[in-house]
Amino acid sequence: MDPVMKFSTRTLMVLLLFAVASCVHFLFLAWKRSKGEGGKGLQISLLARTAGTLFMVFFISLCSSLLAPFRCNIHPNGRWTVQAYHGVYCDGVGPHQVMAVVGGLACLLPLGFLAICMWVIIIELPKRLQQADVKFLRACSFLFMRFRPGAEIFSVLFLIRNALVVLCPLLPGSSAKVVSMNLILYGSLAMTAYSKPWRANVCNFLDMMLVTGMLVILDMGSLFIQDNDGGTTMVICLIFSAMMLLSIIGAVFYGVAKHFMQKYRKPFRYFLCHQKIAAGSMARLLKMELQKRNSKFTTFVDCDDLNDLTRLFSYVGQDTETFVIMGSPDILTRKWCVGEMCTARSHKVKTVLLAWPDFVKPDKNFIENYDSIVPDITELANYNIGLQEESIEHICGNLTGTQRTRSIADTRESPDCIIVSDLDNMEAAATAYVLLGLIVPKLVGGQKNNMPAVLQKDRSVPNSACSALVICSEGCFKQFQFGDWLMQVAKLPDCCVLPIIAEDGFRFPSPSYYEERKVERMLERRLNAD
């Protein structure tokens, strides 16, 4: 056969391969039905999965075969011939023109497959996952079954990478080919190392190892290329040298700009140093109130803003304007809180202490025996670290120098929803106000009396209350005011109760609890009588 007929036959063999796969599929279904095992229909999803798998496996080989008319070699006499068909000149006329047309039309097949894969992964897959369309997912499983959940897009990215690898040999000049192939493979290596897209972790390491081996072979082989086009090589070297120089200059300017930006305007206006068990809800409430005052009062709370523990102390020393210590009784026994305090002091960060009523400043004995009181404090050596009550309104006002137009302790005369909490417990009270702050925005536009309200001391439960949110904290049933409110709620005929557990240590009262309370009351009465 002449070159044109040979190339056309090879191209048709691709279509013949998929035709044979379809015939085998239909014969297999017929055989299954003859044995009474087959289902109804042609099972198009199974056929699509088979055809898609074949396309994925032979994608590079298929594209390389179809692009054969466009890969040409130059001879000493200056003439170009097709690399795979030496008898055909690369002149765009005659046999070469016919082969180019056939190859170009045949290339629509892998391009169409790539477009379908992009449509399936980017557009259809999210919709079908929401609809739980198992049939569609099974039909297209050849695309994403090898990738971990959330990394399905990499099936399309790897197909695009494979297509670019096939196109690299079409570039003029050996230097351009080597550089483009290096860029593609280095990009693929970085992408795999950073994202780890394969479902099996060993496949990620295998992929990186194979690409690294290809890069070594490519770079070693490029040493033996005799490229007479020195101008192209020089331009490529100049471009990359300029990029390297610009990268260095850009990094220097970025560092200088970031230094001055952090010096005069740091990312966080306040850093809340707190013990989660004793002051977690208070820290949340304080952050909510500060941000209500002004959006510029950005506040760091570790559960919201800390993604990397190794950067904790850099947030304190470099990114914070005011360091706020929420002085609960045991905060000095928490090594991370102490590490934050030491970092703030060493970096001369403005520090404010919000002392709890039972907070006691450390004495000489506490400081001298600190390493025995907190044994794991020595772990901070890895980070180069050695060893009056106010309302929330007053705290926010002192920190920001602003005033809030409406008090957080907004009391309504006859609310239909009340929040009952132990106001003598700061965490319980803070939890009540955090809950209030989360509920109120959901009810904007309603009647004033329909808004929830936190029940204040020396106030009775309003008769209009039809629901009560009870903040259950440790020791709340020992408080007279809390128990009195619950008794008033119980007397309301249409008031429903929703208990909200605010602390891990909370336990519902048991029969023995009531007996203990009776004994305590008797002892109190005797002491009062004496």
TrEMBL record:
Record keywords: Membrane, Ribonucleoprotein, Ribosomal protein, Transmembrane, Transmembrane helix
Protein name: 40S ribosomal protein S6
Keyword Secreted attached: no
Lineage: Eukaryota, Sar, Alveolata, Dinophyceae, Suessiales
Residues passing through the membrane, by range: 12-31, 51-70, 98-122, 153-172, 206-225, 231-256
One CC-aspect GO term: ribosome
Highest rank taxon of the organism: Eukaryota
Organism field: Durusdinium trenchii
